[in-house]
Amino acid sequence: MNKVTGQQPLTVATVTGPPPIRGRFLRGADSWGVFRVGFARHLVQLRVCVYPPGVTDHERTMLRLWYSAPIWGVIGWLALWPAISAVSPVDPPFSILAAAAVMLSVVWVVGHQAWPVRKSVRSMVLWIDDDEDPTTRRRADQLLRIVDSLRVADRDLREGRIDAVRHEAIWARCYDDLA
Description:
The chain has 2 domains: 27-51 and 121-179, no CATH class; 69-120. Helix 2 (57-67) crosses helix 4. It has helices at residues 21-27, 57-67, 69-87, 92-118, 134-158, 164-177; strands at 33-40, 43-50, 122-128. It is extended. 58% of the residues lie in helices and 13% in strands. By secondary structure, the chain is an alpha+beta fold.
């Protein structure tokens, strides 16, 4: 409250657009988690992972790096191996082991950073086929409702229709629904 005028200060909402491409790549498009649809022959896989509410951008980045570690770990190892061989006067087996040790150390650091949040991530995976039973249909509807609620909340937050507290409340409700 302003002591001179006796009025409450105006609160200005900051509306931000989607994160830059680098941010979306490292943290993901959705702040709440990941939703993926996959296909295998006559089956459809629905997978949702919801991060615990209040997760920071750094924690989201570490989670995504941890989940993709098999890919970037091998690519990093393949890039480091010839680089170490070129500058090292030792035999190639040593450079192979040195590159592996460096990449395993980096993966361990990422895993250590992601551990506190990783153990709290909630997920649901459903396989749907042509002859699905009513229970599977009901669970798929629940999963799609959760994802829709979270995506609408993200959009509303970006467009300024809801504040961060309301967004987090919706996120927490959906997180609890997956328990």
